[in-house]
User: What shape does this take?
Amino acid sequence: MIRKIKIIKFLIHQKILHIKKYLFIMLNIKEFLFRKKQLNLLSLSSESKLVLDKILEEGFYKLDSNLYFGSLLDNLYEEAKNLSIKTEGSLKKGKLFLEQKINLSDIDNDSIFLKIALNEKILEIISSYLGSSAYLEEVELIQSLPSEEYNQSQLWHIDRTDNKIIKLFIYCNDVDEKNGPFKFLKTKESKKIPSLVPHYLDDSFVDKHIDSSRVNSVKGEKGTSFIIDTKNCFHMGSRCQKPRLAFIAYYNSGFGYFQRKHDWRKNETIYPNKFSKLQKLALDL
Assistant: This one.
């Protein structure tokens, strides 16, 4: 009986979120349609088309970091290292194992984090996948800390803030099993997980539905980068014995189930005339 009540509450909650999304679109229909029309102006390279096809098929793609970010990577490592040392960081929504090292209100045009998140090629791929000009919901520099017990995002889950969500990860230190690598299931395997389940799932539950050999673990040297649809791929990570430092950029349609996290227009040191049309749309400028 209790399980039935929980399922009913979940279904009602999901229905309310869908209604909120629809109403937000209707109230901002001009922007919604304008963002979709911008896709007609995109011209993906053959390389970008391959990346897009792979994300459409599997929900994940491991990037060639040097190809997409080049010399920006060294600047990212330096700034990430400085912030990890100098900044105490704020806990992520009460998660004792995660610290956010970036204060979004301090981001300006020259920020290395913004430069990477607004990479034109990356925006083109993500926009094509989303079916609308990508909106940059948030940028993060996350320090994952060792913990004795696993909870929240250290357990299997999908993000539930929009129909499709893309996150760009770049490791800022070498990551092996002891650093708590990002782990995920591709979209095909993720669909085998029942939909009416709690938000966070332990390993034993997932093991009942998925062969452990289908779990993908992203390990690699500093600079390892990838993009993943965290709405349609079950994932988890940060099960650390040693700290892990990662840059994460979070994109969606801008018309999700919840209010946009950060109003980039309030950043007084971000100047719209410095950006392309696609970059302006990512920041809603």
About this structure: The CA atoms of residues 106 and 267 lie 7 Å apart. The chain has a mean pLDDT of 89. The two ends are 49 Å apart (CA to CA).
